[in-house]
Amino acid sequence: MKELVETAERPKRAFLAGIRDNNTTQEESARLTGELLSLAGTLGLEIAGQEIVRVRERHPRYGLGSGKAMELADKAAGLTADCIVFDMEISPSQQRNWEKLAGIPVVDRQELIIQIFLSRAKTREAELQAVLAELNYSLPRLSHKYIDLSRQRGGRYGTRGAGETRLETDRRYVVSRVRQMERELAEVCKQRAVQRQKRKKAAIPVCALVGYTNAGKSSLLNALTGADAFVEDKLFATLDPTSRRLETGDGRPLILTDTVGFIRRLPHALVDAFRSTLEEASGADLLVHVLDASDREAGRHYETTMTVLGEMGAGSIPMITALNKSDRLSPEEQEAAMSQYPGGIAVSAKTGAGLGALGRRIAGAFTPPI
Ligand SMILES: Nc1nc2c(ncn2[C@@H]2O[C@H](COP(=O)(O)OP(=O)(O)OP(=O)(O)O)[C@@H](O)[C@H]2O)c(=O)[nH]1
Ligand SMILES: [Mg+2]
User: Fold this and answer.
1) Which residue's C-alpha comes closest to atom 27 of ligand 1?
2) Please, what CATH class does the domain formed by 10-107 belong to?
3) Which of 92, 266, 281, 283 sits CB 3.0–4.6 Å from 140 for a disulfide?
């Protein structure tokens, strides 16, 4: 029993692994590894070690040659890793092969993101969506060794969450759970739609804050409306969009709503499951694209957000770009950012700089009344 308690409390040790083929530049692979480190950090994983293996061609069995795969598995074992985490998606059969070879759970980037969503779900809706994504992910992977990577769960709603399917090797069971959760989720979606309909009837325009995870969307919502949305320097702090009334100068009300952050290569299972939450953005009258202008990856984050918005059918909604965290930029860097994103407004949710101008631009977008 004592041992059990100790195992439950100590952070899981992860060995991070990447496979770089000729199509991936060294820069891109370093970027992906950096992001993988943030994802692992968000779950509270301890990094046992990391390695990127260069391959000339992808091998079907492990993604790399079996000699090299064995070497990697030995290295992870030598470092007493509890799991190996890949910085990309791996196929169900490759995952099976790796787990046979290494004897420990092998997790890919998709599963890592799904586990973050599970650990952060604080409402029934977010929980339903995350568990549904996990079930769909696990369907072709019933023999996968599940490991609960997170030390903390949102858990308010009794989430069994990650690993729920650990003992459920019966496909029919999983399928019926998926159906049941989809029905429950459809109910929640209906309620959301009713709320949106009500707002439409009242002719209150909606402005959604969208953007890459950790850009500062919730911080801006708070700074603009005095709300108290959850803010954290970790990925995917927000899973349940908060909406607040923004009082514009001319007295006309406006709803400002926070949304779930985007990330490169967002798992499809999650995009599907979180459709109702994402609809908050695609149903908006105006988008404020929040960008962390101080991040070296800002350009890529901008592109990812634009692509996801296009895929969601939100590509033609009018948009204002907010270049956030401008407090971290020198005047020259601010100039450069503003010329890179024409029409962009430099703001800081932290110091309040530029918020007046942003508020006026938002209000101005609705004059004459829509
Ligand atoms: N220096 C600085 N930090 C900021 C600013 N705005 C937000 N932050 C910090 O950035 C981190 C992320 O902020 P959030 O508001 O949680 O970001 P988000 O876009 O809502 O993130 P997700 O909900 O995870 O998608 C927090 O640590 C904030 O304190 C800013 O203007 N300047
Ligand atoms: Mg947030």
Assistant:
1) 233
2) alpha beta
3) 92
